Amino acid sequence: MQAALKMLRLRSRITPLCLQSVRSASTAAASRNESFATLEDKDRNFFREVLGDSNVITDTDALQPLNEDWMGKYAGKSKLALRPKSTEQVSKVLAYCNDRRLAIVPQGGNTGLVGGSIPLFDEVILLTAGLNQVISFDAVSGTLVCQAGCILEHLDSQVSAQGFTMPLDLGAKGSCQIGGNVSTNAGGLRLLRYGSLHGSVLGIEAVLADGTVVDALQTLRKDNTGYDLKQLFIGSEGTLGVVTAVSLLCPPRSSSVHVCYLAVPDFATTQKVFVKARQRLGEILSAFEFFDQQALDLTLKHLEGIRNPLPDTQTPFYLVVETSGSNEEHDNEKLQSFLEEVMEEEMVLDGTIAQDSAQIAGIWGIREGISVALKHAGPVYKYDLSIPVAEMYDLVEETRQRMAHLPVEVVGYGHLGDGNLHLNVSCQKYDDEILRHIEPFVYEWTAARRGSISAEHGLGQMKAECIRYTKPQPVVDLMLQVKNTFDPNGILNPYKVLPQVMAVAQ
Amino acid sequence: MQAALKMLRLRSRITPLCLQSVRSASTAAASRNESFATLEDKDRNFFREVLGDSNVITDTDALQPLNEDWMGKYAGKSKLALRPKSTEQVSKVLAYCNDRRLAIVPQGGNTGLVGGSIPLFDEVILLTAGLNQVISFDAVSGTLVCQAGCILEHLDSQVSAQGFTMPLDLGAKGSCQIGGNVSTNAGGLRLLRYGSLHGSVLGIEAVLADGTVVDALQTLRKDNTGYDLKQLFIGSEGTLGVVTAVSLLCPPRSSSVHVCYLAVPDFATTQKVFVKARQRLGEILSAFEFFDQQALDLTLKHLEGIRNPLPDTQTPFYLVVETSGSNEEHDNEKLQSFLEEVMEEEMVLDGTIAQDSAQIAGIWGIREGISVALKHAGPVYKYDLSIPVAEMYDLVEETRQRMAHLPVEVVGYGHLGDGNLHLNVSCQKYDDEILRHIEPFVYEWTAARRGSISAEHGLGQMKAECIRYTKPQPVVDLMLQVKNTFDPNGILNPYKVLPQVMAVAQ
Q1: Which of residues A215, A249, A283 is at a domain's end?
Q2: Which UniProt keywords apply (chains A, B) (predicted)?
């Protein structure tokens, strides 16, 4: 770590609007930061020496999927990807890149939605996939320690076998990596029950831009010795350091899980059902998700093997309510009492309870499949907003109205229990005309309600210039100072998260 | 906020041992940092102008309780305390102090155990007691927004009336302030159930050393827009900024609460009972506390109105197990099944379940009274450690053995469910001879097990030089850089938390 702080002047270039346009031209940064070096033969040679030939990727075909995101929305031009297999190798790579001023993009499962793991120009891609070892699991406390490249679903299988569960779950679980989950502060389906990663991550090992290894990989539930620096790596999207390992507190796996699927007549009623669920289901309520008719239709149309649980019911809104508890009989009683009340009080038009794990998977398949179905349907503009629940769906309706004359489908779904809306505009091709109807309208609408323009997806390259819709200037200034303290040369995931900063030596 | 970063060299003065000696001579810093200014008439005049005469305290008698902690262990020599009533006033005071290089100690309820809110020399005391307004409470989501000086117990009463509970509870609740709780990342009795404040604090408003107001007082459950800076203020003990307001997520109040009191033959068995409690009580387990016979005896001897719930049973260990749930009948069944098993399997020698709220208060009165009883008993050396549960009580026994020839009483109790031991050495007077038998032994013993030398009390002035027993050097270095970024003149709570740093202009 360089002990002396560099004297830098922070100057923000603020774009007046946050228009994101098509493909790679859509990004916050219009031009490459020329203070970064360009790759030379000596660099490739150094990396081959440190990592071995097979972990230095220069082949254009092999680079192509690493240069693009899964939605086909962002594309970079990196000529080099590196696959270190140890923290020590990450440290050597970063120290070298820092000295050489080579910009770096850390990439985990590349399942993000805001272009956070995609280079904009010729940044070197640092893959975490080679860091894929489970280090330890304590089956009494439920503490898991593992490297960053472990895949979420694999980890969940491993801890499940010992009676625990991962504290987060999301649709991308089959490919996303835990290091990416932590770096982006992934939310997902279990947040309502187990809280955010800021609570369940116990420790982090990260490598700073200059190669310093920050060993904060503690496994203690409580530790008040100094600043909780690990928190800064949670959700900073690889701009402050590369997360190489994490320790997490896994909650005990519930022996009893129930899922029900409910049809609700209007959005106001979804909230009434939520209040009732909190009262009747109490501590066993583990998920409360909603989606609209448009989302259901898209999913039934575009995904194979999805069955409509209520084929005879057409209604604007559907809910997936999950309970997880330790006593089958008690949980059943609570669920029955909840369902009887919401049916009797006519909050719910129709509903079904999954009878076995296949049916549970079937119901979750609809909710988790929406994002994939949208991808199958064509290009999609995705927004991820925290909004007071009562007003949440107004935004979907207003957006729909604004775009009634355009060939788009506007879809709303999300984590109702957390106040988190996913607003998606599905279209035939990415088109600035469409975009102008969405932005900055969506951001301004959200800002006016003191909401967040990114509840769980992060800012990435999509929204780096838009942070001020949610955070006031002094807070952004302080973030820029923190960035400058951790990464004075700005080599880590440049052009992302924060507004473009020009570092000018005085 | 000063935009340009100061060029500073960080130099650590490390004391070889962490001996804490008697009263104010006991502190980490042996001498005043002479880069701080001393108070002049013009300063007092400025403060009177900003705050009004009655909020500028210069009277020696009035200052005396603010210069001392409640244990009578730490004492400072401040000649001035200020009581701002708004964030704006705090901002004006800090901006002035920063320009004048006047050092500041923020002080909430002054209930801390490590001298964190007590000046060492002539620092100005900044009282948060005047910031005592509840700003809002959302009775649907349970989101509380309030100023830093609100007293924890008052807040709990207010949110209780609307069906919620504060996410933390501790013995000092009648005097401690929420701003202090957040600034010290207070743990307490409900952490097992509701997690740490890093999870339940949704937003913070803080004032930086230069007077910049950091408005991160969001009320959103999810917000991934940039770095989660509020996390840095949680647990940094007022060294990075003065917390002026917080927003917190309050969980729904449980309609059914049960408390039982169990006598257990040995420490190994307490862990078996804990495993059984997690299995049988599952999601309704809300506290699992232990204390030893010595702690019980002290409490019965020194506190009035405390009744021994099991007067005919003498055993080395006692447990307080609490459940909180939403269904009285279900909770009762779970508790009965747990108790039957631990009795049948002879893990528990005897036990009692509180039959009403008075009995619940009676049992909690013992556990929460231990700290007060120790104070009544005389001077006490207090340690607060995170240790793997299996080895936790070994430390108490080894300490007892080391000091068998000295006139002391060694007492162990704490949050068994969180791996958090409170080790207390009660004596007749503070005495370096006694201290030499405890330190650095306790810290080294804990460090050897990768534990934490401060689970929940913080470092304050008591353990500022001891941080390296838990945190490696690169992590401490990074903390020093963060401190320097937030508070370049080092005026905020100097001599605390981090090893002494000399800021040398180059």
Answers
A1: A249
A2: FAD, Flavoprotein, Oxidoreductase
Residue B450 lies in a domain: yes
Within an 8 Å CB–CB cutoff, is residue B7 touching chain A? yes
A145 CA: distance to closest CA in chain B (Å): 14
CA distance B202 to B142: 11
Q: What is the pLDDT of residue A500?
A: 82
Minimum-distance CB partner of B481 among A5, A9, A455: A5
Of residues B7, B140, B451, nearest to A275 (C-beta): B140
The answer for A 281-310 residues in CB contact with B (under 8 A) is 281-284
Q: What is the model's pLDDT at position A126?
A: 98
CATH number of the domain where residue A304 is located: 3.30.70.2190
Tell me the shortest Cα–Cα distance from A474 to chain B, in angstroms.
6
Chosen domain end from A440, A457, A474? A457
Interface membership of A269 toward B (CB under 8 Å): no
Q: Do A9 and B3 touch (CB under 8 A)?
A: yes
With a cut of 70, which residues of chain B have pLDDT below it?
Answer: 1-29, 501-506
* Alpha-carbon gap, residue A9 to B110, rounded angstroms: 40
ipTM of the complex: 0.92
Residue of B7, B224, B466 for testing the chain A interface, max A β-carbons within 10 Å: B224
Q: What is the mean pLDDT of each run of 10 residues along chain A (506 residues)?
A: 32 33 45 96 98 98 96 95 98 98 98 97 98 95 96 98 95 96 94 94 98 96 97 98 98 95 97 94 96 97 94 96 96 96 96 95 96 95 94 97 96 94 96 95 96 96 95 96 98 95 39
The residues, any chain, with a CB within 8 Å of residue A15's CB and separated by 6 or more, are A28, A465
| CATH number (domain holding residue B186) | 3.30.465.10
Query: Nearest CA to CA, how far is B87 from chain A (Å)?
Result: 15
User: Is residue B294 located within the same domain as residue B334?
Assistant: yes
**Portion 62-121 of B in contact with A at CB < 8 A:** none
Residue B466 lies in a domain: no
Together in a domain, B230 and B185: yes
Q: In Å, how far are A10, A288, B84, B105 from B50, measured between CA atoms?
A: 32, 50, 9, 18
Give yes or no for a contact between A116 and A71, defined as CB atoms under 8 angstroms apart: no
Express each pLDDT in B252-301 by its tens digit. 999 999 999 999 999 999 999 999 999 999 999 999 999 999 999 999 99
Q: How many domains does chain A have?
A: 4
**Would residue A303 count as lying in a domain?**
yes
> Which residues in chain A have Cβ-Cβ distances shorter than 8 Å to B253?
none
Q: Which domain holds residue B427?
A: 378-457
CA nearest to A490, candidates A499, A479, A501, A505: A501
Q: Cβ of B163: how many Cβ atoms within 10 Å?
A: 14
* Same domain (yes/no): A84, A28: yes
Q: How many residues does chain B have?
A: 506
In-domain check, residue A1: no
Instruction: Find where tokens 């007022």 sit.
Output: B238
- Nearest-by-Cβ selection for A214 from B459, B463, B474: B474
Structure tokens that stand for A267 in this block: 């959005």
For residues A46 and A108, membership in a common domain is answered with yes
A268 shares its domain with A351: yes
How near does any CA of chain A get to the CA of B155, in Å? 22
